[in-house]
Here is the input.
Amino acid sequence: MEKYDICVLGGGPAGYAAAMRAIDFGKKVCLVEKDKVGGAGVYDGALASKTLWELSEKVRSVNETIVSVGRKKFEISWEEVMKTMNEAIFDRKFQYTCHIKLLQTETTTCRFTFERGTGTMLNQHEILIRHEDEEKVIYAENIIIATGSRPKKLPTIPVDEKIIMTSDGIHHLTDYPKSLVIVGAGVIGCEFATIFSNFGKTKVYIIDRAEKILPFEDDDITDLVARNLEDKGVTIHHSASLNRMEIIDGMVEYELASPDGKKEIIRVEKALVSIGRTPNIEELGMEAAGVHMSKRGMHIGDVDTQTNVPNIYVVGDVKGRIQLVNMGELEGRHAVEKIVLNGQKTERLSYDNVSTIMFLHPEVAAVGMNEKQCREKNIPVKVVKIDYSVISRAIAMRKTQGFFKIIVTNDDEMKILGMRAIGEHASSAIQACALLIKMNQGIEQLAELIHPHPSIIEGIQECVRMLLNRSVFKSSVFKDKLKCYSCVDGVCTPLQRL
Here is the structure.
């Protein structure tokens, strides 16, 4: 029986990062993956959908420019769209394939093994690996579970991945659907609504159970995104209950009920069910290994990535806390460091400065807490906002829709609690605030930092200068473009700045 220091089950972003970190420490590592290395981070997930978004944004931007001067609308075939997406996937797949092959040939400096198959734990150290008709058992001192997740389904909706699809099926369309209904108004649902409405070939509907899309975000963010979607012809069914959805004559028929009791029946060509993700735990044999399970999956409790069985760790989507590629990779590396350093690594994982991006129109980037969360927790804060229309780079790009918003503690230290950015280059703007949150620092350093000019991130500097009463433009003058206020006990009061 082959013995390893660490066995990683799952070759998605979290598992792959864990295996590579174990190599850094010179450990003998076995990475087990039953399907595709890269997981949803490459296939039917992040890379695929973001490639579609990038292309759709280019199409939208071109058309906004040429149609305004009377030229014919630019069109791109679905075949060309799929070609671009598949090329991006192939590039990443090729990198992973080459990397794994080369790692396995570096036997003098790297003790890495890749096993294709499904891994099932027989006990807390032994793992049965099945691939086609072959089986083998290996032994590992430590095991890291990184088996990812899959789209959640509802028993009442007949998902066939051809007419009614999840995000696993939407990437395999053969043409633009003439009409598409999206069940779920969270990040993934709104991203696909943005993509298809950008291309301008599909009538898009969104079924939203809540009053607003993206209900976890502040109203000023969701209102702008919703307005842009509706301006592009998207119909948002707010506060709607889905009574039924079925396939009739090759079409999707769905029935909605509104809060006032009215019912509406609509037929569309395709449907996308986007209601979250489910952890992949069915084949793991967690009970045989003695791992405690909870309603959400594996019970982690207060011990970071470590389960109740000391040598078994859980990372990434299967852990179920924050299902993001960057967080999964961080958890994977963290678990390996806990294993190798054996108690010397006492610093816990922090989720306070997780940076995220939502591929919408405009793009939305976030780190830390938003206003809504601060109010729910009754945290006194100061808030500052700057509109893109007063940022030089945005003016130069002619992309002035959007804003920056920074939330700080309501005291003299003014430590950063969170930031929201919506607009062009939003994802490039939040890193300085993410670092200051991590360092538990105030805004003084950010105010004195010399930013490149012209750049979008100069707006961040102007935000913190407003809080310090040193801004170039005064919020008391440009009240519609600049806002600076405090919120205490649910009451927001403008800060006097001259």
About this structure: The chain has three domains: 3-43+84-150+278-341, 164-275, 362-494.
